[in-house]
Amino acid sequence: MNVIAAQADPKTEFLALLDHAVAAHANVVQVRLADGQAVVEILAAGSVVASLPWTLSRCAEALPAAFALADGPDDFEYNTSRSTRMTGEKAPLPKGVTMVFLQFFPARDGQRHLVARITYDADTCCGTCGG
Asked: Which end of the chain has less Cβ packing within 10 Å, N or C?
């Protein structure tokens, strides 16, 4: 498993996470809360292939920044349930990705706080990502 380097800007960090996920042919980027911290995980075929620890304050910055990259209005309120998608309307998607579906959940210890599901263009996915 790889450890991913943190980025200074939360928006840049989420886009970098997507780039890492695509490089690993992953289909999910998730943020889980556990024991007073957040853990970002990139999953390929259900297995964690890379991770990054975040403080809870970093998580509170990064999730709204990720939502701001999604299509449509930016009316996200941290710690609420929301679903949205990224299609490249506000930020470019990595090559071969047609959409990222984002689900945000209220903070609960031991639970997912964000799930980002990556949809690949049928012409570029090699089939190893489980997609």
From this structure: N
What predicted TM-score, i.e. pTM, was given to this entire model? 0.85
Of 60, 71, 74, 79, give the one whose Cα is nearest residue 10: 60
For the stretch 5-18, pLDDT in tens is 555 678 788 999 99
Query: What is the tens place of the pLDDT at every residue in 93-112?
Result: 999 999 999 999 998 888 99
User: Is the four-CA dihedral 92, 94, 99, 61 of positive or negative sign?
Assistant: negative
Q: How far apart are CA 26 and CA 61, in angstroms?
A: 24
Burial tier of 20 (Cβ tally within 10 Å: 0-12, 13-18, 19+): buried
Asked if 59 contacts 31 with a C-beta cutoff of 8 angstroms, the reply is: yes
